[in-house]
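Narrative summary of target 7.
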Amino acid sequence: MESRIYLSPPSSHSSEDFRKGTIGHSVQSLSGSTELVEYDLAILFVPEYRGAELGISDEIEGVEQSLFELSDSFGNLKLLHLGYVVPGENLSDTYLAVTQIVRECIGNKVLPIVIGGSQDLTYASYSAYEEEERVMNLVSVDYSFDLGDVDSPIGYESYLNKIILSHPNYLYNYSNLGYQSYFVRPDELELMNKLKFDFYRLGNVRSDLKEVEPIVRNADLLSFDLNAIKVADCPGSLKPTPNGFYGEEACAISRYAGLSDKLSSIGFYNLKPSGAGDQSPHLLAQMLWYFIEGFYSRKNDSPVINRTDFLKYTVTSANDLGEIVFYKNLLSERWWMDVPLPQSKLSKYERHQLVPCSYSDYEQACNDEIPSKWLRNYEKFS
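Modeled conformation, tokenized:
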């Protein structure tokens, strides 16, 4: 593995330190003979908090121990423990290290699980797609948009602007799950609307959590801010708040992320360095368990892969937009809708033409209402 120069080895332990049937007994640590392509998943710890002005810490090891004690009920777990990123002299050096590691993983079809550290590390993971020149979708579970001000330095509450303004830009779509209105300025909402991005208030998401699945299914990269979980369930986040997702809901979202055939990397961030003694590392470990469980339950049912097991539904609209085409997989019963792209854009954005959706989107179309997911994608090119 070329990017091993950025890594320090995992905490010393062997599989014999954990009971049979646990993740710790099955996980393999990076060694000189490791071949990435032999694994499905790779877990990476990044003890970098300078983006949150908290320096560097190694106290996220509590997550490692909590995860490895959990049950390995996945059949044939191929999980590689990459170890810890050695923080660079400057924050930008750490970003470079994370970018190269994530890039090497996704290039070998291994899904990296990044455990931070502050959430500005999302920018480093995005940069891996940028270097690959791969147009991608980003989904963030967060109580705010983390836009910051245009002129402000990159940080855990101001990284998204840097992604949006990067040039050339490879961000096709951004979706926020669980924003809380009192943390979002009107000008930020205006910008999200102008860019045709998707954003969902906490109350709306929690009222029907199943609707999260198609949103997450559309992500290439998911960034989970532990601040989005209410303080009663996750007191060890960097900026805990009274409201947010329950722990069970965070685990459900993590499982949906694992189920997504499209998702190729994920990160969990903003665990407070001093939070190692409370329940927060245990919750994060369980979120990781659900993600892995989802990953090994993937259905590979996308119409991009195979359209033989699909029903096609064509809904004629009374407005000028004409027809909306839906696809339903007969085995998984998951839905997609076809958003027509201009011929000039097809080669670059073709993999984003089929947008994951739910039965409720189909019902909307049948009632002569244009589903918002379809309309926002259509308007990107109108």
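The chain has a mean pLDDT of 91.
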